[in-house]
Specification:
Elements lengths: L6 H32 L4 H27 L9 H18 L7 H33 L3 H25 L1 H6 L2 E6 L2 E7 L6 H26 L13 H9 L2 H31 L4 H28 L1 H20 L6 H40 L5 H28 L10 H27 L21 H36 L3
Antiparallel strand pairs: 1-2
Helix pairs in contact: 1-4, 1-5, 1-7, 1-9, 2-4, 2-13, 3-4, 3-7, 4-13, 5-10, 5-12, 9-12, 9-13, 9-14, 10-11, 10-12, 11-12, 11-14, 13-14, 14-15
Length: about 500
């Protein structure tokens, strides 16, 4: 029996998510915008870069999981990978936001190389960090505390910083620190030669801070659970992944929720620049999301203790669905309507906290469940599968966003046609709503794990109709979503053709 974790231990480990997400969220929020509006790459090429890079991870991620499960080192099981990977990861981040003097073709080649390399190193660091969490504690309540603290650093802190303060910092504008609409402090942003230089120096700052935090977490975190080196064959790998029904459903939810984050983050800059017509409101928007996210973080452990992680996850998904769909039909940018837009966004953002904290809180549970069900103990392989689903969602989200923008007639730094504005609004509101609904339907069909268990007594119950019901429901949702996307894409292409040729 392990002694209880100290608050300091929970803090030190959870802080690592801040280091990882300073790197990840800067890319997630701003790389697509940087490539199109600053580096000058066609939006369709950008979609290809993001998509191909993540497809490579289909090979890269499982390999890392197997290596991690078979590696032991005197300083720890997973800690060495964090030490080895932290510096390269953040050097590549800086490379992604660099603008070398190249031809248009070589620009695309450079971005392909940098982004693929970033994905490979991110797998090493991100997978190792998540897997290390399974060796910190096996207690459910302690894991719930860690999950909550991680989400606080990853979402509340990082997204507020990246969403609210990066753009004015890059543009050399006043950086206004507000909370619930009340101005606390105003600082003048630095003066850069141009926007490109601003992004370069921003990536350096984020990279240095991220590296220091990751080293601190690795140095101060103790892997308290001792596990033997895993040696399993191809059949074992199949059982570890596909016989674990809880892992499969949770992976699907991870995919859909990541796609929501990626699409909304990727187009948020476009939304406020082109649809709202006021880029400065993006800073105000994310400052209002800060208290919403804090509320979500505070409420989640209280609600999950009373109602269970699965039920709160389902509730959060339902609210996210209604918040996004409701927001889509709000005209902008009048002040009164913008307040309603902010209000719905705050409700949706707090509910996304429910989903994020709950799903990450259940990741170690699915590993324990898989051990109980298959008799094979493996942390690295399931966690790399989660990572793979995340990266697949990043590729999917970025690919969908790029395709819709291209088909709707988007051209950076120009006055956009109505079709392009509609495409941006669709991406920002309707797509996330549909993904959240699909996630809710799939997740509600599975009693993943009991909300509380003792002595590894997993009694995961599957209704006898589960394997028939879930595929059917998913097919219906996917077909419906595909129909919506196809109709929208055809409409956008038609409008774009009319605008270019004048022929109906």
């Amino acid at each position: 029996m392990l002694p209880p974790l100290k608050k300091r231990d929970i803090f030190n480990f959870s802080l690592g998510d801040l280091g990882i997400n300073l790197n990840f969220q800067l890319l997630s929020f701003w790389l697509m915008y940087f490539y199109t509006d600053v580096f000058g790459i066609n939006v369709l090429h950008v979609g290809g870069i993001l998509l191909v890079s993540r497809l490579w991870d289909a090979v890269n991620d499982p390999m890392m999981g197997i290596i991690a499960d078979r590696t032991r080192n005197k300083i720890g099981t997973y800690k060495p990978f964090i030490y080895w990977g932290a510096i390269p990861l953040n050097l590549i981040l800086i490379a992604c936001f660099s603008m070398p003097e190249l031809s248009d073709t070589m620009k695309v080649v450079y971005c392909y190389f940098a982004y693929i390399l970033h994905g490979m190193v991110f797998t090493v660091v991100g997978t190792s960090y998540s897997a290390m969490g399974t060796l910190v504690t096996q207690d459910q309540q302690e894991r719930a505390k860690i999950s909550t603290m991680r989400m606080f650093f990853a979402v509340v802190v990082v997204i507020t910083i990246v969403g609210s303060y990066v753009r004015p910092f890059v543009m050399g504008e006043p950086i206004v620190f507000e909370f619930i609409g009340k101005e606390l402090l105003t600082l003048q942003g630095p003066s850069f030669k141009d926007e490109a230089q601003g992004w370069f120096y921003t990536s350096i700052i984020f990279g240095v801070i991220s590296t220091l935090i990751l080293f601190y977490t690795a140095l101060t975190t103790k892997e308290r659970v001792s596990e033997p080196v895993k040696k399993y064959n191809l059949k074992d790998m199949k059982n570890i992944l596909f016989k674990n029904d809880a892992l499969m459903i949770l992976s699907l939810s991870m995919f859909l929720n990541t796609a929501i984050w990626v699409i909304q983050n990727a187009v948020s800059g476009y939304y406020f620049k082109y649809v709202v017509g006021a880029e400065s409101l993006l800073t105000v928007f994310f400052q209002w999301m800060l208290p919403a996210n804090i509320i979500g973080v505070v409420l989640t452990p209280i609600l999950t203790a009373k109602f269970g992680k699965k039920n709160i996850f389902i509730l959060g998904s339902l609210i996210v669905f209604f918040a996004n769909f409701g927001r889509h039909f709000i005209p902008i940018p009048t002040t009164e309507v913008y307040n309603l837009f902010i209000g719905l966004s705050m409700v949706g953002s707090a509910s996304m906290m429910f989903c994020s904290i709950c799903q990450w809180g259940m990741v170690p549970d699915t590993i324990e469940y898989g051990h109980w069900k298959t008799g094979i103990r493996a942390e690295g392989l399931p966690l790399t599968f989660f990572t793979f689903m995340q990266k697949s969602a990043m590729a999917f989200g970025a690919g969908v966003a790029s395709l819709v923008l291209w088909a709707s007639g988007f051209v950076a730094n120009t006055e956009l046609p109505e079709s392009a504005l509609s495409g941006i609004k669709l991406l920002y509101n309707i797509f996330p709503g549909m993904f959240s609904l699909t996630c809710l339907i799939a997740f509600a069909e599975l009693l993943v794990l009991p909300n509380h268990h003792k002595d590894n007594n997993y009694r995961g119950v599957k209704p006898p109709f589960l394997h028939h019901c879930i595929p059917l429901l998913l097919r219906v949702c996917v077909l419906q979503l595909g129909q919506i996307l196809l109709v929208q894409a055809l409409q956008c292409i038609k409008v774009n053709h009319i605008l270019e040729t004048g022929v109906q």
